[in-house]
TrEMBL record:
Transmembrane segments: none annotated. The keyword Nucleotide-binding does not apply. Residues 26-251 form the Solute-binding protein family 3/N-terminal domain. The lineage of its organism: Bacteria, Bacillati, Mycoplasmatota, Mollicutes, Acholeplasmatales. This is Amino acid ABC transporter. Keywords: Signal. It comes from Mariniplasma anaerobium.
Length: 272
């Protein structure tokens, strides 16, 4: 009986701790700071990037101080649900599986998903378009286990071979060495990895899909409604312009000719 009572008290304490975070003056925002230009650090080790600025603007809207918490991508939902962080603003795709564990806001970006391809595989198969790639049988698609892009490969590719690895570095290495043929990823990350590995990779810039990106909250959080109001006004309240002014040149250096609007396909049109 004592053990049951102690367990109940412990669970109640955790519940109170988690439940009170919405009312705190500090908004703890979780993201993995290894994904420039969205989530990264500057030369002094301070968080910077599109998601960081978006989080700061959301904090201003709520009247809360923002604290960025660096969390490996695969651990973000766990850390959210145990109360370490209040919200995930970190390029997280809205999926049905994840929605079983968290409450998502409406989407604020659509990430074009493009393919980083092993150069030898690309040349040997005379690949010029995404249709060429998708017609090939048994293409080896690789991605970290926590990435939703493998679901896109399963849906669109011709009997693909799915290879799951632990992180982005391992996935890129698979493509570079030829252990895998393709890494389907967001356009910014794919462009950066191709620039870093120009002799061993090619990139198909025509998107296979658009990946909806939203904020993630604990189930039942009061912040979801606030987030949706904030997101609905991102164009009219000038936040998208703040992001454009600060990051267009960074995006262009990674994806020549591109601006923030590459992530707003299907977003601005829907608002209008």
């Amino acid at each position: 009986m004592k053990k049951i009572l102690m367990l109940f008290v412990a669970m109640l304490a955790i519940g109170l701790l988690v439940g009170c975070s919405d009312d705190s003056n500090v908004l703890k925002v979780g993201m993995d700071l290894t994904y420039p230009p969205h989530e990264t650090v500057d030369s002094d080790g301070n968080p910077t990037g599109i998601s960081v600025t978006l989080a700061e603007e959301f904090g201003k809207y709520l009247g809360k101080e923002v604290q960025i918490v660096d969390v490996p991508f695969g651990s973000l939902i766990t850390e959210l649900n145990i109360g370490t962080i209040d919200v995930i603003i970190g390029s997280m795709t809205i999926t049905e599986d994840r929605a079983l564990s968290v409450d998502f806001s409406n989407k604020y970006f659509n990430f074009p998903l493009v393919t980083l391809v092993n150069k030898t595989f690309y040349d040997d198969n005379n690949i010029e378009t995404k249709e060429d790639l998708l017609a090939i049988e048994n293409v080896r698609f690789v991605a970290p286990k926590t990435f939703a892009t493998l679901d896109v490969a399963r849906e669109l590719a011709n009997n693909p071979v799915i290879r799951e690895v632990n992180d982005v570095t391992a996935a890129v290495l698979e493509v570079v060495t030829g252990a895998s043929d393709v890494f389907l990823m967001s356009v910014g990350n794919a462009a950066g990895q191709h620039l870093a590995n120009p002799d061993t990779t090619e990139i198909l810039m025509d998107p296979l899909s658009l990946s909806p990106i939203g904020m993630a909250f604990r189930k039942g959080s009061n912040l979801v409604a606030e987030a949706n109001i904030f997101i609905a006004g991102l164009e009219t309240n000038g936040v998208y312009d703040i992001l454009r002014n600060k990051y267009n040149s960074v995006i262009d250096s990674n994806i020549p000719g591109a601006t923030l609007d590459i992530y707003l396909q299907g977003i601005i049109d829907e608002e209008e």
